[in-house]
From TrEMBL:
InterPro entries: Aminotrans_3, Aminotrans_3_PPA_site, PyrdxlP-dep_Trfase, PyrdxlP-dep_Trfase_major, PyrdxlP-dep_Trfase_small. It comes from the Bacteria. Pfam families: Aminotran_3. This is Aspartate aminotransferase family protein. SUPFAM superfamilies: PLP-dependent transferases.
């Protein structure tokens, strides 16, 4: 095997994602992961670490599951590649589309495949533009998104992402408009949660009225915002947003790239956890548990009927849409989840994970621990009463994450927030270990401030 030095020498040619590229030039700043099994990963120094971020919110069933690896290999032996374009299809993509239609709520029965969450979201909006054009409403193109959203890094997806990421691109062509972030703890000062929800809905209604509903194609939202800091909206928010959209004939896209496939205890969270029926669900990540890059844009029958009517060429797709090996991984992953009842188990163990981490709220620099089940964010503050954050140059999240890693846990720093999104197969003992490592790490960082 290659030594850490060998790996990192070659790694200078690799451009990391979402990183301070300059800081990564320092010795010891990068970690090479060389192996993984179950809930754990191994680094190039031989350290075994709990994968507290599930790869990147995606390795839901755990690493190195033979069933998925064998399904991929078997598929490659039978049909290595064909695309689902023009008149061609293949049985594995077709079977996965049928399985997703069975699992997705309501009449979400038609599936377009892509190879990333970003692409799934781009596809959703492009499909709606096509849909409205076919309905004789080509001007109905605007998108309502939200501050704090993360929808991906392709041009359209980053435009729908919170403006801090998109560097002004969200203003391009005036297509994307951002509504308020539904974060009660930070933004609901002086209001009850119900009043805050009313205020969010009032703002949304004003924005719709000012842009003109006849110009708005859709609202896009994550059931729980992920990279925006794990923001759980107030009670009843999603159902009311969906009702408002329906009143104004605006389609609802639920970005379930993170929240699907068991992370919140169900295959999909929109209907089962939050009680609303979207017109489109986009998903990726847990769809294959990360074993292959695959995403799905799941459409209602009604949308599909319009885009598949006579005389309409559907000029959209990717070479790898419905890649056989990725589709095989998706099918095997879902079969494994069903066989082992992984989403159902995650309702109990995920709740334990959530309550264990929420127990860290007594620590002086922990402002809010939020999220649900296996999707948790810990926000650090300088002052618990004023909720003032630490100077960003202090890199408080990174400091805690580094301590965690020294103690055997990978967590993801995001400015002054720490994110945990582990595999869904953690034992109660491992959950207790994660809680203890976090408590020790935060306490040590506090002592060094
Ligand atoms: N949507 C959400 C909610 C995400 O968290 C992400 C990625 O983290 C994406 C979309 C983009 O997915 P991808 O990185 O596969 O393009």
């Amino acid at each position: 095997p290659k030594t850490t030095d060998d790996i990192l020498t070659e790694d200078v040619h690799l451009v990391q994602s979402f990183a301070d590229l300059n800081a990564l030039k320092q010795d010891g700043a990068r970690t090479a992961i060389v192996g993984a099994e179950g809930t754990m990963v191994t680094d190039s120094e031989g350290n075994e670490l709990i994968d507290g971020i599930g790869g990147l919110w995606c390795v839901n069933v755990g690493h190195k599951r033979r069933e998925i690896i064998e399904a991929i290999n078997q598929q490659l032996e039978t049909l290595d590649f064909y695309s689902t374009f023009y008149s061609f299809t293949h049985p594995t993509a077709a079977a996965l589309a049928a399985k997703l239609a069975e699992l997705a709520p309501g009449s979400l029965n038609k599936v377009h495949f892509g190879n990333s969450g970003s692409v799934a979201n781009d596809s959703a909006v492009r499909i709606l533009h096509h849909y409205y054009k076919r309905l004789g409403q080509p001007q109905k193109r605007k998108v309502l998104s939200r501050h704090g959203a993360y929808h991906g890094s392709t041009h359209l997806a980053i435009a729908m992402t919170t403006p801090e990421y998109s560097d002004g691109w969200h203003k391009a062509e005036g297509i994307v408009h951002h509504l308020r972030k539904p974060h009660y703890w930070r933004e609901g000062d002086g209001m009850t949660e119900a009043e805050f929800t009313d205020a969010l809905l009032d703002d949304m209604k004003s924005e719709i009225e000012s842009l003109g509903a006849e110009n708005i194609a859709c609202f896009i939202g994550e059931p729980i915002m992920g990279a925006g800091g794990v923001i759980v909206p107030p009670e009843g928010y999603h159902a009311r947003v969906a009702d408002l959209c329906r009143d104004y004939e605006i389609k609802v896209i639920s970005d379930e790239v993170v929240t699907a496939f068991g992370r919140l205890g169900h295959f999909f969270a929109s209907k089962d956890v939050f009680g609303f029926q979207p017109d489109i669900i986009t998903t990726a990540k847990g769809l294959t548990s990360g074993y292959q890059p695959l995403s799905a844009t799941i459409l209602s029958d009604e949308i599909h009927e319009v885009i598949s009517g006579p005389g309409a060429m559907f000029l959209h797709g990717m070479t790898y849409s419905g890649h056989p090996a990725a589709s095989a991984a998706g099918l095997a992953n879902i079969a494994l989840m069903e066989r082992d009842q992984i989403p159902q188990t995650a309702r109990t163990t995920g709740k334990l994970f959530e309550t264990t981490l929420k127990g860290l709220g007594d620590l002086d620099i922990v402002g809010e621990v939020r999220g649900s089940h296996f999707m948790i964010g810990i926000e650090f503050v300088k002052d618990k009463v004023s909720k003032e954050i630490f100077d960003p140059s202090l890199n408080i999240g990174l400091k805690v994450a580094q301590k965690c890693q020294e103690k055997g846990l990978i967590a993801r720093p995001l400015g002054h927030i720490l994110i945990l999104s582990p595999t869904l197969i953690l034992s109660p003992e491992q959950i207790a270990t994660i809680g203890a490592i976090l408590r020790e790490s935060i306490t040590e960082v506090m002592a060094e401030l």
